[in-house]
Amino acid sequence: MSGGLYKVEASGNDFVLGVGGWSPRLAAEPELAVRLCDRRRGIGADGVLAVEAAGPDRVRLRYRNADGSPARFCGNGTRCAARAAVELLGLPRRLTVETDWAALPAEVDGTMVSLELPPPAAPPRAVELEAAGRRWSGWLLEVGVPHLVVPADDLDGLEPALVAPPLRRHPELGPEGANVDFFAAVSAGEIALRTFERGIEGETLCCGSGVVAAALVAMTRGLPRRLVVRPRSGDALTVEALEDVATGPIRFTGATRVVAELSPTAELLAG
User: Fold this and answer.
1) Most buried residue among 110, 115, 123, 187 by CB atoms closer than 10 A?
2) Is it true that domain 125-248 has CATH number 3.40.1280.10?
3) CATH second-level architecture of 5-112+256-270?
4) Is 37 a catalytic residue?
5) Residue 80 falls in the annotated catalytic set
Protein backbone atom coordinates (compact mmCIF):
# COMPACT_ATOMS: atom_id res chain seq x y z
CA MET A 1 0.00 0.00 0.00
CA SER A 2 1.14 3.57 -0.74
CA GLY A 3 -0.39 7.02 -0.37
CA GLY A 4 -3.64 7.77 -2.18
CA LEU A 5 -7.25 6.67 -2.15
CA TYR A 6 -8.33 3.17 -1.04
CA LYS A 7 -11.38 0.98 -0.62
CA VAL A 8 -11.27 -0.70 2.80
CA GLU A 9 -13.70 -2.70 4.88
CA ALA A 10 -14.18 -4.18 8.33
CA SER A 11 -16.77 -6.95 8.75
CA GLY A 12 -18.64 -5.71 5.69
CA ASN A 13 -18.69 -2.06 6.81
CA ASP A 14 -16.95 -0.48 3.81
CA PHE A 15 -15.25 2.87 3.30
CA VAL A 16 -13.29 5.02 0.89
CA LEU A 17 -10.13 6.02 2.76
CA GLY A 18 -7.84 8.88 1.76
CA VAL A 19 -4.35 9.88 2.86
CA GLY A 20 -2.03 12.63 1.64
CA GLY A 21 -3.84 15.18 -0.52
CA TRP A 22 -7.04 13.14 -0.39
CA SER A 23 -7.51 13.61 3.34
CA PRO A 24 -8.46 17.31 3.35
CA ARG A 25 -10.74 16.80 0.35
CA LEU A 26 -12.69 13.97 1.94
CA ALA A 27 -12.95 15.94 5.19
CA ALA A 28 -14.13 19.18 3.59
CA GLU A 29 -16.28 18.14 0.62
CA PRO A 30 -19.56 16.40 1.54
CA GLU A 31 -20.60 16.32 -2.12
CA LEU A 32 -17.48 14.33 -2.95
CA ALA A 33 -18.28 11.86 -0.18
CA VAL A 34 -21.77 11.37 -1.62
CA ARG A 35 -20.42 10.78 -5.15
CA LEU A 36 -17.78 8.31 -4.02
CA CYS A 37 -20.16 6.38 -1.77
CA ASP A 38 -22.91 6.01 -4.39
CA ARG A 39 -23.19 2.28 -5.10
CA ARG A 40 -24.61 2.76 -8.60
CA ARG A 41 -22.75 5.77 -9.97
CA GLY A 42 -19.68 5.90 -7.72
CA ILE A 43 -17.30 3.53 -5.95
CA GLY A 44 -19.76 2.45 -3.28
CA ALA A 45 -19.21 2.71 0.47
CA ASP A 46 -20.90 3.33 3.82
CA GLY A 47 -18.71 6.40 4.39
CA VAL A 48 -15.37 8.11 3.80
CA LEU A 49 -12.29 8.27 6.05
CA ALA A 50 -9.92 11.25 5.95
CA VAL A 51 -6.65 10.14 7.58
CA GLU A 52 -3.54 12.18 8.33
CA ALA A 53 -0.61 11.93 10.74
CA ALA A 54 -0.86 14.13 13.85
CA GLY A 55 2.42 13.16 15.52
CA PRO A 56 4.94 10.32 15.71
CA ASP A 57 2.37 7.94 17.18
CA ARG A 58 -0.92 9.77 16.52
CA VAL A 59 -3.25 9.95 13.54
CA ARG A 60 -6.23 12.25 12.92
CA LEU A 61 -9.44 10.76 11.52
CA ARG A 62 -12.39 12.70 10.16
CA TYR A 63 -15.40 10.69 9.05
CA ARG A 64 -18.39 11.35 6.78
CA ASN A 65 -21.39 9.11 6.23
CA ALA A 66 -22.56 8.09 2.77
CA ASP A 67 -25.00 11.02 2.74
CA GLY A 68 -22.12 13.46 3.34
CA SER A 69 -22.99 14.17 6.98
CA PRO A 70 -20.13 14.13 9.52
CA ALA A 71 -20.18 11.76 12.48
CA ARG A 72 -18.18 12.02 15.69
CA PHE A 73 -17.23 8.36 15.65
CA CYS A 74 -17.26 5.26 13.48
CA GLY A 75 -15.91 2.17 15.21
CA ASN A 76 -15.02 0.09 12.16
CA GLY A 77 -13.77 3.14 10.28
CA THR A 78 -11.47 3.99 13.18
CA ARG A 79 -10.01 0.50 13.12
CA CYS A 80 -9.40 0.80 9.35
CA ALA A 81 -7.77 4.21 9.90
CA ALA A 82 -5.43 2.76 12.52
CA ARG A 83 -4.26 0.09 10.10
CA ALA A 84 -3.80 2.67 7.34
CA ALA A 85 -1.73 4.83 9.70
CA VAL A 86 0.66 1.92 10.24
CA GLU A 87 0.85 0.67 6.64
CA LEU A 88 0.57 3.98 4.74
CA LEU A 89 1.97 6.59 7.10
CA GLY A 90 4.61 4.52 8.90
CA LEU A 91 3.24 4.96 12.42
CA PRO A 92 3.94 2.35 15.12
CA ARG A 93 1.47 -0.46 15.61
CA ARG A 94 0.53 0.96 19.02
CA LEU A 95 -0.83 4.42 18.35
CA THR A 96 -3.60 6.89 19.14
CA VAL A 97 -6.43 7.73 16.74
CA GLU A 98 -7.86 11.21 17.26
CA THR A 99 -11.57 11.17 16.41
CA ASP A 100 -14.19 13.88 16.87
CA TRP A 101 -15.42 11.91 19.90
CA ALA A 102 -12.18 11.08 21.72
CA ALA A 103 -8.50 10.19 21.30
CA LEU A 104 -8.51 6.39 21.24
CA PRO A 105 -5.57 4.05 21.87
CA ALA A 106 -5.28 1.46 19.11
CA GLU A 107 -3.15 -1.61 18.42
CA VAL A 108 -2.59 -3.07 14.95
CA ASP A 109 -1.57 -6.71 14.62
CA GLY A 110 -1.60 -7.47 10.91
CA THR A 111 -5.22 -7.40 9.80
CA MET A 112 -6.53 -7.41 13.38
CA VAL A 113 -7.07 -4.04 15.04
CA SER A 114 -8.12 -3.28 18.62
CA LEU A 115 -9.44 0.00 19.99
CA GLU A 116 -9.68 1.03 23.63
CA LEU A 117 -12.83 3.06 24.13
CA PRO A 118 -13.90 5.11 27.13
CA PRO A 119 -17.09 4.05 28.93
CA PRO A 120 -20.31 5.81 27.91
CA ALA A 121 -20.85 9.09 29.75
CA ALA A 122 -24.09 7.65 31.14
CA PRO A 123 -25.26 4.04 31.61
CA PRO A 124 -27.85 2.57 29.23
CA ARG A 125 -31.23 4.23 29.80
CA ALA A 126 -34.33 2.08 29.48
CA VAL A 127 -36.94 3.47 27.06
CA GLU A 128 -40.30 2.33 25.70
CA LEU A 129 -41.35 3.68 22.32
CA GLU A 130 -44.44 3.40 20.12
CA ALA A 131 -43.43 2.91 16.48
CA ALA A 132 -44.25 0.77 13.45
CA GLY A 133 -47.55 -0.30 14.98
CA ARG A 134 -46.15 -1.76 18.19
CA ARG A 135 -44.45 -0.92 21.46
CA TRP A 136 -40.67 -1.41 21.70
CA SER A 137 -38.57 -1.76 24.83
CA GLY A 138 -34.88 -0.92 24.56
CA TRP A 139 -31.95 1.03 25.92
CA LEU A 140 -30.49 4.31 24.78
CA LEU A 141 -26.76 5.02 25.14
CA GLU A 142 -23.92 6.77 23.35
CA VAL A 143 -20.75 5.15 22.06
CA GLY A 144 -19.45 8.25 20.33
CA VAL A 145 -22.83 8.45 18.59
CA PRO A 146 -26.29 7.59 19.97
CA HIS A 147 -27.68 4.07 19.76
CA LEU A 148 -31.05 2.57 20.53
CA VAL A 149 -30.42 -1.09 21.45
CA VAL A 150 -33.46 -3.36 21.17
CA PRO A 151 -33.73 -7.08 22.00
CA ALA A 152 -35.27 -9.23 19.26
CA ASP A 153 -36.58 -12.77 19.40
CA ASP A 154 -36.27 -13.43 15.66
CA LEU A 155 -33.39 -11.52 14.04
CA ASP A 156 -33.65 -13.46 10.77
CA GLY A 157 -37.33 -12.65 10.41
CA LEU A 158 -36.85 -8.98 11.29
CA GLU A 159 -37.31 -6.37 8.56
CA PRO A 160 -35.18 -3.37 9.63
CA ALA A 161 -36.07 -1.41 6.48
CA LEU A 162 -39.68 -1.36 7.69
CA VAL A 163 -39.44 -1.17 11.48
CA ALA A 164 -36.22 0.76 12.06
CA PRO A 165 -36.86 4.14 10.33
CA PRO A 166 -39.65 5.27 12.70
CA LEU A 167 -37.52 4.18 15.66
CA ARG A 168 -34.40 5.85 14.28
CA ARG A 169 -36.28 9.18 14.06
CA HIS A 170 -38.52 8.80 17.10
CA PRO A 171 -39.13 12.20 18.79
CA GLU A 172 -37.98 10.85 22.16
CA LEU A 173 -34.50 10.23 20.71
CA GLY A 174 -33.89 13.92 19.96
CA PRO A 175 -33.73 15.90 16.70
CA GLU A 176 -30.90 13.83 15.19
CA GLY A 177 -32.32 10.46 16.21
CA ALA A 178 -30.14 7.40 16.76
CA ASN A 179 -28.78 4.27 15.17
CA VAL A 180 -30.97 1.25 15.89
CA ASP A 181 -29.38 -2.06 16.96
CA PHE A 182 -31.45 -5.25 17.22
CA PHE A 183 -29.71 -8.04 19.13
CA ALA A 184 -30.30 -11.57 20.37
CA ALA A 185 -28.25 -13.81 22.64
CA VAL A 186 -26.80 -16.80 20.79
CA SER A 187 -25.08 -18.32 23.83
CA ALA A 188 -23.72 -17.19 27.19
CA GLY A 189 -20.74 -15.59 25.44
CA GLU A 190 -22.12 -14.52 22.07
CA ILE A 191 -24.78 -12.22 20.64
CA ALA A 192 -26.03 -11.64 17.10
CA LEU A 193 -26.77 -8.15 15.81
CA ARG A 194 -28.49 -6.22 13.02
CA THR A 195 -28.03 -2.44 12.74
CA PHE A 196 -29.87 0.32 10.88
CA GLU A 197 -27.53 3.31 10.62
CA ARG A 198 -28.42 6.97 10.44
CA GLY A 199 -26.48 8.88 7.78
CA ILE A 200 -26.65 5.76 5.62
CA GLU A 201 -30.39 5.35 6.25
CA GLY A 202 -30.32 1.63 5.82
CA GLU A 203 -29.12 -1.62 7.31
CA THR A 204 -25.37 -2.20 7.12
CA LEU A 205 -23.50 -5.47 7.40
CA CYS A 206 -21.80 -4.15 10.51
CA CYS A 207 -21.67 -1.01 12.66
CA GLY A 208 -18.70 -0.91 15.02
CA SER A 209 -20.15 1.49 17.57
CA GLY A 210 -23.37 -0.55 17.43
CA VAL A 211 -21.41 -3.72 18.17
CA VAL A 212 -20.02 -2.08 21.31
CA ALA A 213 -23.36 -0.56 22.34
CA ALA A 214 -25.23 -3.87 22.03
CA ALA A 215 -22.47 -5.73 23.88
CA LEU A 216 -22.54 -3.25 26.77
CA VAL A 217 -26.31 -3.59 27.07
CA ALA A 218 -26.00 -7.39 27.01
CA MET A 219 -23.33 -7.24 29.73
CA THR A 220 -25.55 -5.12 31.97
CA ARG A 221 -28.23 -7.80 31.53
CA GLY A 222 -25.98 -10.51 32.92
CA LEU A 223 -23.84 -11.73 30.02
CA PRO A 224 -20.05 -12.05 30.50
CA ARG A 225 -17.69 -9.07 30.35
CA ARG A 226 -16.12 -10.50 27.17
CA LEU A 227 -18.52 -11.16 24.31
CA VAL A 228 -18.32 -12.28 20.72
CA VAL A 229 -20.65 -10.21 18.55
CA ARG A 230 -21.74 -11.41 15.12
CA PRO A 231 -23.27 -8.67 12.95
CA ARG A 232 -25.15 -9.31 9.72
CA SER A 233 -21.87 -10.04 7.90
CA GLY A 234 -21.40 -13.11 10.10
CA ASP A 235 -17.90 -12.05 11.16
CA ALA A 236 -16.85 -12.47 14.79
CA LEU A 237 -15.85 -9.33 16.69
CA THR A 238 -15.00 -9.17 20.37
CA VAL A 239 -15.95 -6.60 22.98
CA GLU A 240 -14.37 -6.78 26.41
CA ALA A 241 -15.01 -4.62 29.48
CA LEU A 242 -11.52 -4.28 30.91
CA GLU A 243 -12.77 -3.20 34.34
CA ASP A 244 -16.26 -2.38 35.60
CA VAL A 245 -18.79 -2.49 32.76
CA ALA A 246 -20.26 0.91 33.64
CA THR A 247 -17.11 2.86 34.41
CA GLY A 248 -14.09 1.15 32.85
CA PRO A 249 -12.54 1.14 29.37
CA ILE A 250 -13.76 -1.21 26.63
CA ARG A 251 -11.63 -3.12 24.14
CA PHE A 252 -13.14 -3.60 20.66
CA THR A 253 -11.32 -5.99 18.30
CA GLY A 254 -11.86 -7.29 14.79
CA ALA A 255 -10.37 -7.80 11.35
CA THR A 256 -9.84 -5.16 8.65
CA ARG A 257 -9.23 -5.58 4.93
CA VAL A 258 -7.80 -3.46 2.14
CA VAL A 259 -9.93 -4.11 -0.94
CA ALA A 260 -8.24 -1.97 -3.59
CA GLU A 261 -6.17 1.10 -4.37
CA LEU A 262 -8.42 3.49 -6.30
CA SER A 263 -7.96 5.71 -9.32
CA PRO A 264 -11.30 7.47 -9.75
CA THR A 265 -11.91 9.37 -12.99
CA ALA A 266 -11.90 13.15 -13.23
CA GLU A 267 -15.55 12.95 -14.25
CA LEU A 268 -16.50 11.25 -10.96
CA LEU A 269 -14.44 13.65 -8.88
CA ALA A 270 -15.89 16.70 -10.63
CA GLY A 271 -19.48 15.57 -10.12
Assistant:
1) 115
2) no
3) Roll (3.10)
4) no
5) no
